[in-house]
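We modelled the chain as a single entity of 339 amino acids. Its sequence is:
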Amino acid sequence: MQLTLASDPIQIALASPTLAKIYTMAEKSTGISLVVLRRRGDALLRLNPSGVEAPLPVFCQIIRASEGGRERCAACRSLVVLGACYRGLTDYCCHGGMSVVAAPVPGDDNDAEGRLVVSSCAFADADTERGWRSLRRHAHGLPVDMEQLRKAYERLPVLTEEKLALARWLVDAAASAIAEARDYAVMRMNASGSLPVEKSPSKDTAPVLKRDIAEALRLSRDLSFKGERPTGAMLIDMVVAMVSRDPSIAFTVGDVAKAARMTPNHFSTLFRRHTGITFVEFLAARRVALGQELLRDPTLSVGEVARRVGFGDASYFSRRFRKLVGATPREWRETSGIL
């Protein structure tokens, strides 16, 4: 059989037959699709089984059509990863009445920000009216057609308790299957210096790649850290990495605390204990640092820089900038010889 060479074990893992079975079972038994959330540069991608960006539901496309909606979606996507890596298999409420189930792919717990996460596509609250009321509050202020949004919301899958339990099981099994196939691919790469990939599994790989779903779930329980008590230090390290990667995303104390399944006061106390400053102070400092980088581009106005770093108001950005840097953005530009 003709072999091709590949250098990305994750791409090989996403194409494993075991994972394909789990994806198919999820769609047929629950009506939802599964995606893998993976960092690529500064972007957090949603990958389908073929390893390319998965199409968004119409509901998400409507929300993301506005700049404010894109920012909220980016924040939600990062918070799903945070919650999964910190808590293990978890449910996450995104955009009010819309939910997902997510689980981390077992791997290096010291690199949670770079880990893969398996997520379900969005599904609606079983109480659709309650979910819609919550969603309307969340979407308040976005320039979207609410009637069009409601129609898209009503087309989202609604999971019964039984189907939700099955969805959790399948997401967990998919995460385990990816870890197994990835580790096997890495092992072969280390042994040969390159990774031969076959269009179909050969006899020697079949026992690994065609392990049944029950075994994948057992491996998930063995390899993941769901049974361990996550530490506050691990959470804060993940939050610091997440915000440092893209401080312009609309993070709030409440959002991060919700993803970690704790109260805002508890999260704020943990963050200050481990960093010496509040989350708001840290976020502002990272945004100001990003602002300094952008201010080096003389074609960008101070207002545009403020918007790009996550400050909706240029005056507030200037006050924060002056407090941390000792000069206003305009003064800093002048003294740096940029203008």
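As a brief sanity check on the tokenised model: The longest helix spans residues 161-192. The radius of gyration is 22 Å.
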